[in-house]
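User: quick one, fold this
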Amino acid sequence: MSNNDGFLELKDFNYYNMVKQGSRSICNRRAQVFGVMDTGTRSVDGAGLEWIDENGNIITLTKADFDAHPAFNFPEVIVGGNYFRSIPRAYWKRGIGPSGSDSAGKWCMWISDVPLDGFKSNPGAFKRSGSWLDHFLWGTYRAFNDGGVPGSKPGKTHWSRVSWQAFKNAAASIGEGHHMISLQEWHEILGRAAIEKKTFQLVPEASRQNASLCKYRGIEEFAFSGSTSAEWMDGARTDASGKYELWTEAGGNYSSTGVTCPQGGSEATYYNQGLVTGGLFDHLFFGASLGPASTSFIPDYSGRPSSVVGRFCYSYFYAGYAWCGAFNSVFHRLPSDEDADIGSRLAKW
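Assistant:
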């Protein structure tokens, strides 16, 4: 009932099973698998999406379906007075829909709450020092300056004009696994939001300056474009030649991908995340290459200005930029740079 890697095959879930997920046993229920497919339509909001089941056939989902799926539930956890949301480990599969299905020949992304054949977890978010984690904690709120260290509490002013390096050091100084959020962790959340919302325009451009409308499953200021509109991210950077370097696992060493980060400069680059795939990119939501950038599955910008190399990542959802949808990120700041628009968020392993 399993393949050689210990992953259960999808057909095994015609029956009830018990499988081991990290330190937890999941018993007496079926795997929950569903995803989205690329319909082929394109707009300023990116690729059109449709919900599909594990076999690639179109289905209708409701909020109750997502409420019942373990991977979409982010319970609140308070550590040291700071508010976090617990993001559970999930398993992903991305590729072309199976023949004979509604998604045949179309690019798809599925999520499962248990390991299945062909599904993988994200080591950049869930593997640390060689061991798999069953969750990570993500700050409910954007960080505020709590006496020189980042905090996550309601009603606080966002900590801006803090450099990447200063925030990273301050978060680590708390100890016990506290850290600056990473791009790999962020993509875990964005991937789930893209499936649930069935769009890459996770928060409509017109709503991004209204904090009350910028929420996702308990995460506040989600894609919020207030006085602080961007968040520093660890886990991804470019080297002195402008090539991506990524974590191999959470908090691990940066490793070269050998892939040059796309350069900005035209609207076509907003649709360029589909141009890289494989290796370290397996733990980011860069889609498989399907041809021209304008027809790739993941439609959002991830690149750098042509004039800069060796920079760190930040992600943003500026108001006035409709194309800043899911997975949008830019590399053009040094680790010492400070800007009123850029803050970050606290996380914990």
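User: anything notable?
Assistant: The longest helix spans residues 183-197.
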